[in-house]
Structure formats: structure tokens, C-alpha cells
Amino acid sequence: MLLKILQLVSSIIVISLSAYGLITRDYQLNFLMIFFLGLFMLILGIKEFQRERSIYGWLLIAVCLFALFVSIQNFIYL
């Protein structure tokens, strides 16, 4: 239940930041969008591990780590 709530909250944050960037053409908050997208992928990876689909779980964890790395890099060089 908690994972479902976190998944919903992170997806709403990602969609709202994406919409803000598209409407205003201000892309300074992209690092936050990528960060929350990484958290969303982490939640999906945990859910896949719970469903005993470990290959997809590891793939989503790897995508999560890459997204968090890109987000941190964008924040540092902002």
C-alpha cells in the first residue's frame, strides 16, 4: 500500500514538472524531474522484486541509479 502511494506521488510530481517545463519552456527544474523519475523507477523495481520478477527488478534498479547519477550531475553543473 505504501509503495502504491509513493508511486502515485512520484508520478504526479514527474508529470507536473514535465508539464511545467513544456508550457513555460523553462528547463531549469529538469534535474528534479529526473530525480523523481529515478525514484519512480526504484519503486517499480521493488515492486518487480516482490512479484519475483528479478530480471526486470534489476533492470529498473539500474535505470534508477543512472537517472539519479544524471540528476546529481545536472544539479552540480547547474
UniProtKB/TrEMBL annotation:
Q: Which InterPro entries match?
A: DUF3953
Transmembrane ranges, per UniProt, are 5-23, 29-46, 58-77
Q: Name one Pfam family in it.
A: DUF3953
Keyword annotations for this protein, in alphabetical order, are: Membrane, Transmembrane, Transmembrane helix
Q: What is this protein called?
A: 4-amino-4-deoxy-L-arabinose transferase-like glycosyltransferase
